[in-house]
Amino acid sequence: MKILFLDIDGVLNSRAYDCRRNWNEQTNIDETRLPLVKEIVEKTGAGIVLTSTWRRHLDSAMNACDEAGEYVVRTFAKQGLRIFSKTPDLGGGASRRDEVTAWLSEHDKIVETFVILDDCAFGWEELSPFYIHTNPHFGNGVEEEHAIRAIAILNGETI
Question: CA-CA distance, 119 to 36, in Å (whole number)?
Fold first, then answer.
């Protein structure tokens, strides 16, 4: 199985989005970014594994366990997207790399290949070849160039 490790803040939103979003409603996800995620999933068959701290709002079956979780599930569903799994919460001292590595270790028999979409630029070490950096400060989070690269990595193609 192909896996898309997906962060939300900084990937599915940006500083530019924050300037125009409605702060009186739950609008943390810039829905204009989700078609790019959908494109990645459709062109690769990848399952989405949530790495974001937003994963704490989903139960082990990837159903909403609170209002924030309902927002995430509902917003993804608008694009026909479903979250397959989430990385474990290893506590305050663990890095996102540690959590992705733990998930990969637990699911090593089913993972064919993977890609990581995240705005955190540091600490990926051995996972760096699979990491795609989004820039929420000077960009829109995930952009077309990131989707193209993610599809290529997941499909074993060169860019």
Answer: 16
Enclosing H/E stretch for 116: strand 113-118
pTM exceeds 0.90:
yes
| Residue 159 domain flag | no
Q: How far is the C-alpha of 89 from the C-alpha of 96, rounded, in Å?
A: 9
What DSSP designation does 9 have?
A: T
Tell me the per-residue pLDDT of 83-104, one tens digit each, with 9 for 90 and over.
999 999 998 888 999 999 999 9
Look at residue 52 and give its three-state secondary structure. coil
Write the secondary structure of 76-87 as one string of H (helix), E (strand) and C (coil). Answer: HHCCCCCEEEEC
Domain that holds residue 123: 2-154
As for how many domains the chain has, the answer is 1
Burial 5-42 (b: 16+ CB within 10 A, else e): bbbbbbbbbbeebeeeeeeeeebbbbeebbebbbbbbe
Nearest CA to 29 out of 72, 79, 84, 86 is that of 72
